[in-house]
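Input/output pair, single chain:
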Amino acid sequence: METKYFHTALFSQEHTISQVDWRAWDLEEKFDLKHEKVDIPDHISSKCIAITKFFNLNFSAIDMIFTDDGNYVFLELNPNGQWAWLEEKVGHPLRDSIIDFLLIG
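Output:
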């Protein structure tokens, strides 16, 4: 089965409350944190795939920061990261991709 990845940018720096921790958007003020489908460079995608395979995972949610000077900074790999809200916010077909993986392999 082909490797699939779904890149999403969260624009946490647009709001003071979410600048340190983007999760605050859903806990306190319930403002509309901008989410957007994005493309990332192939060499960054390759590193994400490599670390996922290194830990023998079939799925991972990887958090990164894209800096003002154009660099990607790895924060963490979540082997069971949350994803359902990304389908709602930007339309990534994560549920169907997971189902296909489980049924087809």
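DSSP finds three helices and four strands in the chain. The chain has one domain: 8-104.
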